[in-house]
Amino acid sequence: xxxxxxxxxxxxxxxxxxxALLKRPRILILDDAFSSVDVxxxxxxxxxxxxxxxxxxxxxxxxRISAVRNLDFTVVLDEGRIAEKGTHAELLHLDxxxxxxxxxxxxxxxxxxxxxxxx
Length: 119
What we know:
Residues 5-34 form the ABC transporter domain. One of its GO terms (molecular function) is ATP hydrolysis activity. The protein is an alpha+beta fold and 119 residues long. Helices cover 51% and strands 18% of the residues. The longest helix has 22 residues, at 97-118.
C-alpha cells in the first residue's frame, strides 16, 4: 500500500482495464471483469468501450446479462457446453437459459432499486 492508499475492488478492476487498453490490443479477454462494480458503473464502462472497440475484438466472460446484452454476439454455456448463441434479442426470443437469467437478474435489480429508494 504505497502512501497508505487503499483501492476498492472496483477501482482495482478499472485500473487493470485501463492498463490493458493502453496497450491497444487487437483482442481483449475480460473474465468477470465487472464483478466488483455496480451495474450502473458497468454500463458506463461498456458505453465508453463502444468508441474504442472498433478495431478490438472483445471476449467478455460474465454472469451478468447487463454486461453482455449490448454486444454483437453472445454464447451461453451450460455445464461447459454451448447451450445457446445469438444476439440479445435472439436469445430472449429462444426463451431458454439466457432469457431465464435475464428475467431473474432484472427482477433482482428492480428489487434492489426499490429497497434503495425506500431507505
